[in-house]
Amino acid sequence: MDKLDARILELLQGNGELSAAEIADRIGLSKAPCWRRTQKLQQDGVIRRTVALLDAHALNVGTTVFVTLKTGNHSEAWFDKFVRAVRDIPEVTEIHRMSGDVDYLIRIVVPDIDAYDVVYKRLISAVDFQDVSASFALETIKYTTALPLDYLKLD
Q1: What is the dihedral of CA 118, 123, 126, 127, to 10 degrees?
Q2: Among 19, 106, 118, 142, which residue's CB has the most CB atoms within a 10 Å radius?
Q3: Eight-class DSSP state of 147
Q4: What is the pLDDT of residue 8?
Q5: Residues of the chain whose pLDDT is less than 50?
Q6: Do 120 and 134 meet the contact criterion of CB atoms below 8 Å apart?
């Protein structure tokens, strides 16, 4: 990967709809080599997919809830059951296995507290937890899907 690849990634993180011609024009490269570079980044798994970012408020899921989970059971069977349960809950948008005092951190998006309660009940009926704690985001100060490119090892 070189500086041109990094520039392509930077542009696509800002707008995934840019055409090869638009990218080529912005980085000073002809269209065909730019297209080949983009294809290689996709084939190598650097670009995983291109998506549309939707407005949560416009879709009536503007309430974000961060849920911490503790479990007393760390067996593979428990974990498999947990993964199946959360995969079937569309309001769960992120799941992270954590170090420290909690085992998992989940991000949930819902219309309101009542909708969260429905998701909560669905979650705790599917899997046993030692502790479940929820915090509601009052305001989103920063949200981005763009990853920092400063750490790339360039050729």
Answers
A1: -150
A2: 106
A3: P
A4: 98
A5: none
A6: yes
Rounded Cα distance between 132 and 144, Å, is 27
CATH of 3-43, one of 1.10.10.10, 3.90.1150.10, 3.40.50.720, 2.40.50.100: 1.10.10.10
CATH 3.30.70.920 is held by the domain 63-136: yes
Contact 144, 86 (CB under 8 A): no
In this prediction the pTM is: 0.91
Beta-strand relationship, 131-136 and 63-70:
antiparallel
User: Facing residues of 65 across strands?
Assistant: 108, 136
